[in-house]
Predict the 3D structure of the following.
Amino acid sequence: MRVRLKAYFIKILMCSFLILLSGCAHLSKNYTVSTNIDRENFKEYFSASRVTVFKNEKEIPSPFKLLGLVEGEDCKVKTHHAAPTKIIAKQTTKTKAFNKGANGIIFTSCILLDNQKLEKQNGVQRADNQCLASFVCYGKAYKFQPLNTEKNSG
């Protein structure tokens, strides 16, 4: 009795698996998958990870060159949006530094601007497309010669 029950259970399991598998094959023909990853802009997606953060110029390997000032922002436009974060503001700043040709950055400051501070700064009431709150980070972008960490195979 036990052996027949086990064989019956295996047959049901196999039939269920085949039905499920055929259903998946049918679905894959009718639906397409799209992503926000663009092959041509792939470098930009990871550009911030190529910029090293330093505390001061003494930490930057020599020789180095100051390329200029950069700033990045995380803006909350609608009341139901998430609050702006320092992390996103720093990532945006690092991406802008990378776009200038930098591989190093020193953050000089990051500040949170709420609606009242933004209205004072702008001198007028907020327009619909302006930030309710904003995190802004400022930094100096540097280009330095990276240390060769690869071992010579010779």
User: Anything to note?
Assistant: Residues 50 and 103 are 6 Å apart (CA to CA). Helices lie at 2-30, 42-45, 86-99, 115-122.
